[in-house]
Design goal:
The chain is globular. The longest helix has 18 residues. An eight-stranded mixed beta sheet has the order 6-7-8-3-9-10-12-11, sandwiched between helices. The chain is of the alpha/beta class. A hairpin with a 2-residue loop joins β11 and β12. The chain is about 30% helix and about 25% strand. It contains ten helices and twelve strands.
Length: about 325
């Protein structure tokens, strides 16, 4: 039997930190907000990495750094083995073409003064790929793939629903045939029925075009549908990372366990019997994070050592990493 060839890594971050300066109150002294604190991860070509966590944990900041829209305070981001912070001129323009981003708000990310035709044409013009005979046909195929009718080309973003606008955002991101797409909560602002359509569209496009995704979300039920690997973030750190099936069947961090218990079940009888884990305590402020493990004020397994020591991310089983030395006493089936 021939051993399978390992999938090449297309994107990697090494010890990425991002600090912002902010004030606590109007007259407060400036403080440092550790939006990201030592993020290391890798994305294999043709797969989907899900990044999950509550609002304010640093997911979007990480996505913007991976797309070179923000510069890390410390650490490295490598794309195809090259550090993106060092890219300039033509190399940076090539990176912009190959790595695209779908933003969370499909209204704010589209220019309200441009028609849909202008929005979809802009990437070709910026990158010098506009050809009078060829590009209109590419636009028609692109629009059709993303469920946009040709009759919509003369309309403006405000004339569409949220789902239709997000389709435009997806089409714009795919216009130049990128290799990697960073999806920053692309369905969080949409109705559940529209969410399913957009997720299925992304899944179909990945199979058709061989895309690699970094999918950012706060909803475990969404990432379960799409992701091969999942990294769980809390207060600027990755607290657990593993293949998706392993995360759902064998969570090793109390925060992951609590998030999984919140996923609604389709069977009402099973939902009644389910034990929901309610996290107590307040969400810590990134302006004043707690000492020791950042999750200990809300953790039902916390011990005295958790208030003093910051746990490192360690491998608890093959390809499964967690930063909690105390394993949950009872597993919660998703």
């Amino acid at each position: 039997m021939t051993p399978s060839t390992p999938t090449p890594t297309i994107l990697e971050s090494r010890g990425v930190r991002k600090f912002f300066s902010a004030k606590e109150g109007i007259f407060g002294r400036p403080k440092t907000v550790r939006a990201l604190d030592g993020i290391s991860l890798s994305v294999q070509k043709g797969t989907t990495l899900g990044i999950v966590g509550e609002s304010g944990c640093g997911k979007t900041t990480l996505g913007r750094i991976l797309a070179a829209l923000e510069t890390p305070t410390e650490g490295q981001v490598l794309y195809d083995g090259r550090e993106i912070q060092n890219l300039k001129g033509r190399e940076l323009k090539k990176f912009r073409k190959e790595v695209q981003i779908i933003f969370q708000d499909p209204y704010a990310s589209l220019d309200p003064r441009m028609t849909i035709f202008d929005i979809l044409s802009e990437p070709f013009i910026i990158h010098g790929e506009w050809k009078a005979a060829e590009t209109p046909q590419r636009l028609l195929k692109l629009a059709s793939t993303c469920g946009i009718a040709q009759s919509h080309f003369t309309r403006y973003p405000h004339e569409f629903s949220g789902g239709q606008r997000q389709r435009v955002g997806i089409a714009r991101a795919l216009a130049l045939n990128p290799k990697l797409v960073i999806c920053d909560e692309p369905v969080s602002a949409l109705d559940v029925s529209i969410q399913a359509q957009i997720l299925n569209l992304l899944k179909d496009l990945q199979g058709e075009l061989g895309l690699t995704y970094v999918f950012i979300s706060h909803d475990f039920s969404v990432v379960r549908h799409l992701c091969d690997e999942i990294a769980v973030m809390y207060l600027g750190k990755i607290v657990e990372a593993a293949p998706a099936d392993e995360i759902f069947s064998n969570p090793q961090h109390p925060y992951t366990e609590a998030l999984l218990s919140a996923i609604p079940l389709t069977d009402p009888e099973k939902q009644k019997l389910r034990r929901r884990i309610i996290l107590s305590g307040d969400i810590p402020s990134p302006l004043n994070p707690p000492p020791g493990c950042p999750f200990h004020p809300r953790c039902r397994y916390a011990e005295n050592s958790c208030r003093e020591n910051v746990p490192a991310l360690k491998e608890v089983s093959q390809s499964h990493y967690a930063s909690c030395p105390i394993r949950p006493l009872a597993k919660v089936s998703p």
